[in-house]
Write a structure and sequence with these properties.
Layout lengths: L1 H15 L13 H7 L14 H12 L1 H11 L7 H8 L10 H12 L3 H4 E2 L7 E2 L3 E8 L4 E7 L3 H22 L3 H4 L1 H16 L1 H14 L6 E2 L12 E5 L4 E2 L3 H6 L4 H19 L2 E2 L7 E3 L9 E3 L5 E2 L3 H15 L3 H10 L9 H16 L8 H12 L11 H17 L5 H17 L1 H18 L3 H57 L4 H5 L1 H16 L3
Parallel strand pairs: 5-10
Antiparallel strand pairs: 1-3, 2-3, 3-4, 4-6, 7-9, 8-11, 9-10
Helix pairs in contact: 1-3, 1-8, 3-4, 3-5, 4-5, 8-10, 13-18, 13-19, 14-15, 14-19, 15-16, 16-17, 17-18, 21-23
Protein name: Ubiquinone biosynthesis regulatory protein kinase UbiB
Pathway: Cofactor biosynthesis; ubiquinone biosynthesis [regulation]
GO biological process, one term: ubiquinone biosynthetic process
């Protein structure tokens, strides 16, 4: 019942900010058209605001899940009108904050002491405010500058309500919308449920940040702030304060003489390194989470914040994804079709020739454009929609990757409009493929297995003994089974023999009776029956075995 109340709330907020006009260009039918016509009141004051501001305020009003959707949209300025994109960009770090004194109270409760006994120069005015938490500045008693991230009070209940509504909508999509099954909406929402609840756990975010910092500790292209674990709890995260340039401040980056082309290309390389080398990638790469160091202007360094949402791919997913991307880069559509079947993304009985032709019809017109005009993320989305004809199912394990790829490309093109994602990604993927197949890389994998094998070595004699014992036992069981089968066959033969013997005796007795009782004239007219009975009985008795 709560989800219906939440749906009504969403419709009321949409009406309040007069968002219906944003959907005027869509030919809505059925329940969607009916719901948007419900008589909710609009706010006359909101009519004075531009459409981008009204959309941003509505998303803020609806809460964290809707704010995150706006954050994703804000990274795709090539897809949105500029007035809307500019407003949605404010969702990245300018969400309305909650009371700083309440944040202080939450910190004291979590850490079990007064704020002045824990930190110096604590600022009750938030440095930044986002959908799930807000950030305050302070200094440790030892002098290090830190930021303190505090989860919004009561946010978990709002998220649970929204997730209940999203699950309801996902079930509706799968049951009542054509091709809804292949979207696997319920699985996507289930995965997002896990992700969003992980985002509420700041200890998990700290662990992600620590792992990312470790992955790039010998690589200057990405810096991750240090986490202070003594001051970190489930709803409180304390980490090193950094002083960089927000990546969305293009003019400031130019004044600092940052090489924007190199910066954009480095961002793509960082993303592919996380996906294919580490299988552990930052999946919330909107501009509010990324800063740029003021140092190393010729070799720009990224600074990653907000490590709440991370994705990971299995080794099989990594290989198939890389192979598919390389095949698309090289316009080898036959290979793309075969890989989709091989990895199970389309049914095994999919006609390869038809699927190949479909891929070619989608890709070739796009490749006629200059590479800088091609949106790689949009190409993948278009391929998915087209492949729906062949019952291609959306892979939940790749949803975060697809979203992040859109983020990265949108961010890169904002920094450097002529960014050629293909030219940057292709050498990386080719080198990754060569490394994966090289003898040295396989030798490293074998070396990695050696400690595990050595650990199991003392158990090898016992394992061999158990194997031989099981083999002997299996042989004895097989022999016993054969003996039992032979006994059963012999018993069947005996039973059949007894039946034939009884029938033969009965036939002979009947023949004798018919001869010696002189049954009359019918006996004289039918002597053949007597002889048949006699011979049948004698034969069955003779061949009874």
């Amino acid at each position: 019942m709560k989800k219906y109340f939440r749906l009504i709330t969403i419709l009321r907020v949409a009406a309040h900010f007069n968002l219906q006009e944003l959907l005027d260009d869509f030919d809505l039918k059925g329940p969607a058209k009916f719901l948007l016509k419900l008589p909710f009141k609009s706010d006359p004051d909101s009519a004075k605001l531009n459409r981008g501001t009204r959309l941003r305020l509505a998303l803020e009003k609806l809460g964290p899940i809707f704010i995150k959707f706006g954050q994703l949209l804000s990274t795709r300025r090539d897809m949105l009108p500029l007035d809307i994109a500019d407003e949605l960009a404010k969702l990245q770090d300018q969400v309305a904050p909650f009371d700083g004194l309440e944040a202080q109270s939450l910190i004291e409760k979590a850490l079990g002491d007064k704020i002045e006994n824990l930190f110096n120069d604590f600022s009750s005015t938030p440095l930044a405010s986002a959908s799930v938490a807000q950030v305050h500045t302070a200094k440790l008693l030892s002098g290090e500058e830190v930021v303190i991230k505090v989860v919004r009070p009561g946010i978990d209940k709002i998220i649970d309500q929204d997730l209940a509504l999203l699950n309801f909508l996902a079930a509706f999509i799968e049951n009542y919308i054509k091709d809804g099954k292949r979207l696997r909406a319920k699985e996507i929402i289930r995965d997002y449920d896990f992700v969003i609840h992980d985002e509420l756990n700041l200890q998990a975010e700290g662990a992600n940040g620590t792992q990312l910092r470790k992955n790039f500790e010998n690589n200057h292209v990405l810096y991750v702030p240090k986490v202070y674990w003594d001051y970190t709890r489930k709803n409180i995260l304390v980490m090193e304060r950094i002083h960089g340039i927000p990546i969305s401040h293009i003019d400031e980056l130019k004044k600092a003489n940052i090489d924007l082309k190199k910066l954009a290309e480095t961002g793509v390389e960082i993303f592919f390194t996380q996906v294919f080398d580490h299988s552990f990638f930052h999946a919330d790469m909107h501009p509010g989470n990324i800063f740029v160091s003021r140092e190393h202007t010729d070799k720009p360094q990224y600074i990653a914040l907000d490590c709440a949402i991370f994705g990971s791919l299995s080794e099989d997913d990594q290989q198939y994804l890389a192979k598919n991307l390389l095949a698309i880069f090289k316009r080898d559509y036959r290979k793309v079709a075969e890989l989709h079947v091989e990895c199970g993304w389309v049914p095994a009985d999919t006609p390869i020739h038809a699927f190949e032709a479909t891929m070619r019809s989608v890709c070739e017109p796009i490749f006629e454009k200059s590479l800088r005009e091609i949106s790689f993320g949009m190409l993948l989305l278009q391929l998915f929609r087209t492949a729906g004809r062949f019952n291609m199912e959306l892979q939940p394990s790749l949803v975060l990757l697809q979203k992040t790829m859109l983020n990265i490309e949108g961010l890169g093109k904002e920094l450097y409009p002529d960014l050629d994602l293909w030219q940057t990604a292709l050498p990386f993927l080719e080198n990754w493929q060569k490394r994966r197949l090289s003898p040295w890389e396989n030798l490293k994998k074998l070396k990695g297995k050696v400690p595990e094998w050595l650990e199991q070595l003392p158990e090898l004699p016992e394992l061999v003994y158990d194997f031989l014992a099981d083999t002997r036992s299996s042989r004895r069981q097989a022999k016993r089974l054969l003996q039992e089968q032979a006994k059963a066959r012999q018993q069947v033969r005996r039973t059949q023999s007894k039946k034939r013997f009884r029938f033969g005796v009965s036939a002979l007795l009947l023949a004798v009776i018919m001869v010696f009782t002189n049954l009359g004239q019918w006996m004289d007219s039918m002597p053949l029956e007597i002889w048949l009975l006699s011979f049948t009985g004698i034969g069955l008795l003779y061949f009874r075995r």
